[in-house]
Fold this sequence. Notes:
By secondary structure, the protein is of the alpha+beta class.
Amino acid sequence: MAVYTIVNADEIAAFIDEYDVGEVISFKGIAEGVENSNYLLTTTKNHFILTLYEKRVNENDLPFFLGLMDHLAHKGINCATPIADREGNILKTLCGRPAALISFLDGLSVSRPSVQNCRELGAALAEMHLAVADFKLSRKNDLSIEGWKTLAEECDARADECQKGLRNIIADEMEDLSNHWPTDLPTGIIHADLFPDNVFFLNGKLSGLIDYYFACSDMLVYDVAICLNAWCFEADGAFNVTKAAGLIREYDAIRPLSDSEKNALPLLCRGAALRFMLTRLYDWLNRVEGALVKTKDPLEYLAKLTFHQQVKSAGEYGVDMGI
């Protein structure tokens, strides 16, 4: 979440007047995240998130994202869901941007996930993957191998501004991953961005998942790899194998991983680390003046990539290899 488009009180009041959600009491921009403009909105009836979709989000993808959230909610997955106006519309326009009013989930994200947090995440991720098995829409992952190539090319000339030698590191890793990226693992709809700030906990229990705006069709175990990167490294950069083992075992208990999926994890973790390093690097090199947004450090994911490059088997992530 972030704020790129500034909306004033009159504009928000006029927008909300088309819904049966009460009158606006207060609203404020949310600085976390990097993709869209988000406001926390309080009305006389409830709390909501007002999202304006910015240029990186393809407007043609919005029916997929909003439909997915609605599908998950009907399947019993506790996630943020779009609210329809009095005419039944969930996708509208505000300040020249596509916009939607989204339900507010109670709970807080954790900045330092515990082992128990990671276990609950693993279970929730597996339940989500099973719940979308009959979702009728699909969306290509624009941030897989081909998307990384594009980002790498766009960052190539200036990558060393971030760290000397980064340009060559990216080129070498891109070549290796392109030659070995798996194509025969089970696929489905994945969240693709399940960082701690997109998972809420309440009274010590996982209470919901948010921000499905990277969701796409891809290898299901790639979602696990993204979570290992996002949840299982400590603040000092050390990998916590206990957290990783808990996450994977709880996932595996609900949606069993095949041997091929387990064996692919080291490579997929490298790919996930490269993907987030590249998007962070692109944003770091192309910071938006005046935007209420926190630019994230690409070198955090360079360190994670370096770690995964040394991993010889998924057993080093705490995976039970059944040997």
